[in-house]
Every structure is written in C-alpha cells, then in structure tokens.
Write a structure and sequence with these properties.
This protein is α/β, with parallel strands linked by helices and about 300 residues long. The protein has 7 helices and 9 strands; from the N terminus they run βαβαβαβαβαββααββ. The protein has 2 domains: about 5-130, Response regulator (Rossmann fold, 3-Layer(aba) Sandwich), CATH 3.40.50; about 155-265, Phosphatase 2c, domain 1 (4-Layer Sandwich).
Length: about 300
C-alpha cells in the first residue's frame, strides 16, 4: 500500500511541480500536493492544513526559498523544508542549509529526492513522537506533584496529646503520591478515632477522593462513636460520587481513654496489627466488610470493645 504524503510545493513552474510529484509517486508515495508561488499563498497554506514536507524552489518571480523558510520558522511548525533549484552557487546552498533548510537538491539531478524526502519525513515523525512523549511525561509529573501536595495536606501535622497514651503516625509511600492515608479524629465523650486507609490508583483522582473521604469521616465521627455506623454512612455517600473502578479500604478504630478499650470496623483493609505492652501480638483487627464505594447497601458493624 502506498504511503500518503502531503506535499506543499513552492514553484512558479507547473511543469517542474508535476515532475516532483511524478518522482515521488514512482517512489511509492500517494501524493496530495498543492503549489504556491507567493508569500501570502504560502502563509495561508501552512496555516490552513498540515503538511508532511515542503519542496521549495530557491528563486521565484515574487518569492524565494529563504523567505519561505523564515515564514515557516516564524509559524513554529515542524515541517521538513527541502530546497530544489535550477542552479545557485555553493555559497548560497550552504547558507540556506545553515539557516535551517533540511536538504538541498539540484533540479538537474533529482536522484536523491525520494530518499531525502523519506529520511526527513521519518525524522520529523520521530521528533513529533518524542515531543508528545515528553509532553505526556511532563503532564504526568505535574499531576503527581499536585497529588503529592494534596496528600501531604491530608496527613496530621502532629499526633494528639492524650494522657496515659503515646500516639504517633507515619506513612512512607513507594511512589511520589500514593493513595495511603492516616488520620486522628476527635470523637464524642473524649474518644479518639484512629484511621488508616488506602485509595486505589495514584495521582490527582485518588488524592481528591481521599480528601473527600476524610471530610466525610470527620463530620460523621464528630456526632457518633459507632465506628460501624460511621463507615456505613460514609460508604453510602461515596457510592454516589466515585466510579466503578475506584474504591477505598479503611480501618477505623475508636480508642476510649476512660475504659482503655478499643473497637474497630474495617472496610476491606488488611488486618491491623495490635500488640500488648510486652510487644506480643493480640488478635488482629480483621476486616468485617468490603471496601467503601462498591455497594451502597453495605452495613458495617463495630467489633466488641477490647482491652
């Protein structure tokens, strides 16, 4: 199958333009071409549609190759520019190449036309792919930077002071912005909520979802000590807001300083490790429900208080 090639020809001779098109067709290209011979027509053509290559005569009655090259460079379009002339001195050929032309051919010797065009079109496409990849990488890095900033604002600035308890928290993400989250939440009757959560995915979306989840938890926990009820209500609201591919795992623990007991509810989160004063393991704080955001009718129950 012939490769399509969009060619803009700067040429005052209709016959010479047809020769160029014929050579490219014989070289295996399906040509879509347009011929211009003035600066206004050239400027309008490069603005109106994309081109794969420009073939320019050096001298025309009202226009010339160097002027066309300047106009192309001002347009900031990456289009290969090959000069084809009936005869100019070597100094002029070198000068226009230094100015940015990609190649120079003599009209009397066009054997290099097809390979020169093939080379320049290939290299231009490679440059375009590289720019697109770099742009995508930059956009991804910027998203991760914003997500990281959002995530850092969610973490507690310091642990709460609670008489008789040493409280501390730390998260270390493998990526610049993971979906990990932890928090301390004030609850009624002097109780303290301890939260560990994780949102699927990375980037701005998960960071914003965790910010939303954090807000819901804080509002709900300010009015209730029932960790199961808190997760149940948070889940119903989140199910209305998030897509099917997103969900949140969460372990919510209520610490009652007065009785020195805890109870928990876990929405699909890995079991929490619980140690006694000697560092020996107590029963894990196991999950007792599916992750948040999957089914709006899910009911979460609090565990019995444990010392």
């Amino acid at each position: 199958m012939s490769q399509k090639l969009r060619v803009l020809i700067i040429e005052d001779s209709v016959l010479d333009a047809k020769v160029l098109v014929g050579l490219l067709q014989n070289g295996g290209y399906e040509i879509d071409s347009e011929r211009v011979e003035t600066a206004p027509d050239f400027s309008e053509a490069i603005q109106r549609r994309p081109w794969d290559i420009i073939l320019a005569d050096y001298n025309l009655p009202e226009f010339n190759g160097p002027e066309a090259l300047v106009l192309l460079q001002k347009s900031e379009r990456d289009i290969p520019f090959i000069v084809i002339s009936g005869g100019i001195g070597e100094d002029l050929a070198v000068q226009i190449m230094k100015s940015g032309a990609h190649d120079y051919l003599m009209k009397g010797n066009l054997a290099r036309l097809v390979p020169a065009v093939a080379r320049e079109v290939r290299e231009t496409r490679e440059r375009t792919m590289r720019r697109e990849a770099e742009s995508a990488l930059h956009a991804a890095n910027e998203q991760m930077r914003i997500a990281h900033e959002i995530q850092q604002r969610l973490f507690p600035k310091e642990a709460p002071a609670l008489e008789g308890f040493d409280i501390a928290g730390l998260t270390q993400s493998a990526d610049e912005a993971g979906g990990d989250y932890y928090d301390y939440i004030s609850m009624p009757n002097g109780c303290l909520g301890l939260v560990v959560g994780d949102v699927t995915g990375h980037g701005i979306g998960p960071a914003l979802l965790m910010a939303e989840t954090r807000a819901y938890l804080r509002i709900l926990a300010s009015h209730s000590n029932d960790v199961g009820h808190i997760l149940t209500q948070a889940n119903r609201v989140l199910c209305e807001d998030i897509d099917a591919e997103r969900f949140v795992t969460m372990l919510l623990v209520m610490l009652d300083p007065a009785t020195r007991t805890i109870c928990h509810a876990s929405a699909g989160h890995p079991p929490g490790l619980w140690l006694d004063a000697k560092g020996e393991s107590k029963p894990d704080l196991r999950r007792n429900g599916i992750p948040l955001g999957l089914r709006p009718d899910t009911e979460y129950a609090a565990s019995v208080p444990q010392q």
